[in-house]
Amino acid sequence: MRDDARWLAAAAALAARARPLSRPNPGVGAIVVRDGRVVARGWTQAGGRPHAEAVALTAAGDAARGATLYVTLEPCAHRSARGPACADLVSESGLARVVVGCMDPDPRTSGAGIARIREAGIAADFLPSPACARSLSGYLVSKRLGRPEVTLKLALSLDGCIALTSGESQWITGAQARAHTHAMRARSDAILVGRGTLRADNPRLDVRLPGLEDRSPQRWVLTHGPVPEGWRALSSPTDIFRMEGVLHLFVEGGAKTATAFLAAGLVDRLLIYRAPVLLGGRPALGDFGLSALAQAHGQWRLTERRQLGSDTLEVYDARNPTDSSSES
Fold this sequence. Notes:
By secondary structure, the protein is α/β, with parallel strands linked by helices. The chain folds into 2 domains: 1-140, Cytidine Deaminase, domain 2 (3-Layer(aba) Sandwich), CATH 3.40.140; 147-318, Dihydrofolate Reductase, subunit A. The chain is built from 9 helices and 15 strands. The protein has helices at 2-15, 52-60, 86-91, 112-119, 130-135, 137-145, 175-186, 195-201, 255-263, and strands spanning 29-34, 37-43, 68-71, 97-100, 123-126, 149-156, 161-163, 190-194, 218-222, 231-234, 248-253, 269-274, 282-283, 300-308, 311-318. Strand 1 (29-34) and strand 2 (37-43) form a beta hairpin. It is elongated, with a radius of gyration of 21 Å. Keywords: Hydrolase, Metal-binding, Multifunctional enzyme, NADP, Oxidoreductase, Riboflavin biosynthesis, Zinc. Substrate binds at residues 185, 205, 208, 252. Zn(2+) binds at residues 51, 76, 86. Its cofactor is Zn(2+).
């Protein structure tokens, strides 16, 4: 089981190559292993097809016979005009075994994928994998809650400010932290700021990392008014339930927008970049509805901490884990 978990984690890391170009499907990773060596690998391609299993099995060819397939999400069981059911491809592959990291709650598959593989005489095991669940988090949230996964990014001073009292905010953090932010943008389907941020900064909100420019997310603004060309509008945070095809939403600011999403209970992850400076300026957040200090405790779980030059990054997940998803 230790080896199985290790290969599933490797498949989950591979799946990162698909995000976000695989939308509307999740980024799935698949690895074909034989005698402890990787025979082939695959990830969901741009536009959602071919699926990861199809790519890996095509690359493996006859070498798949007697091998083990590690896949982050249960192979789909439904046939589509866009491509064959992966459960059928797996059943015909000659594999000896399949190990799945996340089951698929989509009623078109939901256990039927593994069942079909077993009916073909191939051993199929479900091994719950935290790494696979994390790699599929946006799609998991989408299936469970009917909305994108929301990541709120805050770039703060030591005293919790996002700008001077004059409004000047570029730049609180250094070059390494800003580069990391661009990498996070590249993993998102859409990015959102508030009307005030759009008016004051006219931000580009694109990805300016070499080789990743094509992964710049859709640009959204929280406003009731008209928006510039190339932008889309949400009138309130709850409008995210109508954001079709968006699995990962990256909220960058400012304070009113961050507060509004927290007040609505619509933040799944916090990225807090903290610079070693004191500003005594504008606070990052306003009142988002806590009426007692006890309500603040136990809401967030630290999942990562790293140094980015002179700045620090802390990642917190809301304590509402999701463990299932789907691929269409």
